[in-house]
# Entry
Amino acid sequence: QVQLVESGGGLVQPGGSLRLSCAASGFTFDRYPMSWARQAPGKERETVAIISTGGLTNYADSVEGRFTISRDNAKSTVYLQMNSLKPEDTAVYYCNALGYRGQGTQVTVSS
# Structure
């Protein structure tokens, strides 16, 4: 079955960086787009980045220029490089594909 396992979250100071990873299995990874979404307490879920099978990317306005999504088809892994982090980036980040999502990884941006 489809499995998505996120890692790389943690506590970081404002202005810092984190790199999230999502290891995928149970489907032919290179045939499907992948995305990252986040959900903060009391807020709606927000899709922050999408990457197509061909590597085309799209970002939410809130992260444009600071976050970069990438994929390694050989490793069936998608990444989210997050730079210049802000307190408002604090959320649980989820990897998504084929209508499935992983268990999420917590990102907390705080001094």
